[in-house]
Amino acid sequence: MSLVKSRKIRELNAYFTPVGFVIEETTDDIDKLQIDQQDPLNEWIGQFEANKYIALFHLGFLEKEKWFSPAIEYLYHIVDLLIKKLSKQSDLEFSRESVQVELIEEELNRLKEEVPFVIGAEYVDATWLQALWEKLLAVFRMEIRTYEGTVSRYFAEYSSNINVVGRVFFHLVENKEEQYPFAFMATYSTKPVKSKKAVHTPLKNALVEFKGDEKTLLALMATVIKAAEQSRFISELLESGELFSPLKLTNKEAYTFLKEIVIYEGAGIMCRVPDWWRKSNNSVRLSVTIGEKEPAKVGLDAIMDFSPSLKIGDEALTEQELRDFLAMAEGLVQYKGKWVEVNKEKLEVVLQAFEKVKDLAKDEVLSLGDAMRMELNINKVLDLSSEEIEVSISNGQWFRNMKETLIHPMSMQKVDTVPSFQATLRAYQESGFQWLYKMSQLGFGACLADDMGLGKTVQIIAFLEYTRIHYGGKALLILPASLIGNWQKEIEKFAPELTYQILHKSDRKGAEELCVSDSAFLCITTYGMAVRLEELKNRQWDFLILDEAQAIKNPGTKQTKAIKGIPAKMKIAMTGTPIENRLSDLWSLFDFLNQGLLGTAKEFTNFTKGLTDDGIGYAKLRKMINPFVLRRLKTDKKIISDLPDKLEMNEYATLSKKQVALYKQLLEQIAVKLEEAEGIERKGLILSSIMKFKQICNHPDQYLGREEFKPENSGKFEQLREICETIYVKRERVLVFTQFREMTEPISDFLKNIFLKEGFVLHGGTPIKKRNQMVEQFNGEQYIPYMVLSLKAGGVGLNLTAANHVIHFDRWWNPAVENQATDRAFRIGQTKNVMVHKFVTKGTVEEKIDAMIEAKQKLAGDILSASGEQWITEYNNEELMQLFVLGGDVK
């Protein structure tokens, strides 16, 4: 079946988890019936679904495909490395399913540095890589155990591009004789009768071992014959028979051998040579030292000192010594006890680059931003035309110390929080506060990117209160409307003296215009209002802070452009998902924080095109942005030790206009009825009224009995969106509890659009068999993002440890019942910190009762748990109306 349309229909992606990886397929619903079953992508999707480790191992035999996402390409690089290492095992035919192939420390470190910016990248550490490596190696061992042919034939069946090494090795070592400073020997691997492991023995022994068996000897020598066809040096050794004996070599002969290694290894001969050749420590290179002294001013425009130098390994080289090398014949020469390659073409390029940079250091200026950009492409910043020249950056003392301090804020010189800040910060939060202060002193934009639940808000408040007391000024905070209530509560709790103003239509009285007040230190507004309020662009703000800064990830939108047009001395972004999947999001974030650091959008796009070629680009990019992004994770053992296993927090939603109108209408009706009701009737009226208030706070349509449930008509739905969008980006899972069965489907329908996938709904009407199936699937590897549960049906008997978020959409006002529900996720078998989000609608009966419960719990938690909501009926009419009435913040 052929495709009706030429555009791609299916995409295969991957994201990383603490225990491995998950393959994720996206399908264009409109065209999903037009799938070409012969398309390689569709073939691989089926294989990944059957067994992802077998499919991934076989993926390594392919050439890179266009449909590879960055995550799959990274996994491909790991498999490719394994297959190459397997193909270079000279005793592979002997060991077969017993083969041992290790990831050495250098390879592990490189793989950790080269992780792309994708979901779950933070989980990729040495333990994660070793576990994946063993699973992939197990696939090879399993397949080769039952394969009847040779190992070479096994590899050839999958790819003609894989050359399994032969059993012959070439060795070159240094020798102490002046005339013959090198020694050469050829060996081959053989397996002694009583040994499980192959050993290396001189090649001349093969003439004895295979005497009379010309066919086996020719098979052994096949790789040497192949190399001799391209190498005159090996051809002469083979013809003369000298190849079968240890040889002394001159430095000229050794240089010929070293230059031809690519020929030998291409023929299937493993070469063991001195480390200095493999690591290019014998080549002259240009090094540029930047930032030895502290610049006169701060910010990315600060002027940095820089100077070029020449080096061989770690040894300094003078310009005259380089010119002396150029006067010598090409080859290997000794310099300060080390062998150096004299390659005139390369040395000429290095000399020209050195002279050019020397002239630049005299006549040009290098900004701190330029110095940072050198991490990505030093040749471009210094306008060096040749990409072949190796130029290294050496950070001077000030530059090195500055970057190290920002990357490791625990080592910073500390300032104390001010007395008016009324909170005790955890150790990592204290580091965050110190880091924000240091960034402000250096004039840098800062991205506070801690995981959800680690307390970004309280760190920002500590920083704002410190700067308000010591420096004054004016700060602007832009956030989603659903977070206004949370910020108000946090400010009032932790910095009650910090003056703030809400610039939002919900805070406006009548036709009153919204204007920036000169008396408030902090102005708080929403992303939507920031586009409309021209006054924001006409002021020079000291601080501009974005909460949920992923709102500006699309650089082309009107909203992003408007916010980037607001002038500020320091810009701060808060986000729990700074860099996930699309690097264009990263560019837009840094275009706001530190404009120009990542170049123009076009320059950055050109840079990202080559990122997946070898992974080095990811390492460079990560190294460059690390000083400007502070990210701590709940999975970090250092952070976990400072956290409770269960993080509980109130999430404050704001009523919509429709909710306010219905709430006030109900309030008036209750006031009249309370005057007439007595006894049982009065208790019934109070409890039914509480239920109705809860319904209004959930959504107007629940109270009115309608089925539309538009999200914009409920503050809780908007709050749910903010939290679940972050959960989705991180591919975590969430349980949403409601005491109302009729709310389970509307909530699920809403979440479907956020997670782009349907989760589960469980209530009293769900059959027992189906419940068990849901639990099994939810806890399985396939990504089921959410489960919506009615509190009574889902509060007991379920083990849902795959979720690490619990949301109480509405409140039972009985701590025992809520805790029992929370413990569906927070129980034996849970390996992650569980975050419990309790929704409270600001200014309503929900907020007042929540505060009362908190106070009562401290006094008599057991009594409260047993009484449920009955205690509220004991209030007199005046106390009840004070409990029900809307708070002063709700208009």
Automatic annotation (TrEMBL):
GO MF: ATP binding; helicase activity; hydrolase activity
Domain Helicase ATP-binding: from-to ranges: 437-596
Asked whether the UniProt record includes Nucleus among its keywords, one would answer no
Q: Which Pfam families match?
A: DUF3670, Helicase_C, SNF2-rel_dom
UniProt domain Helicase C-terminal: residue ranges: 719-879
Q: Which UniProt keywords apply?
A: ATP-binding, Helicase, Hydrolase, Nucleotide-binding
List the Gene3D superfamilies hit by this protein, alphabetically.
P-loop containing nucleotide triphosphate hydrolases, Tandem AAA-ATPase domain
Q: Which InterPro entries match?
A: DUF3670, Helicase_ATP-bd, Helicase_C-like, P-loop_NTPase, SNF2-like_sf, SNF2/RAD54-like_C, SNF2_N
* Full protein name: DNA/RNA helicase, superfamily II, SNF2 family
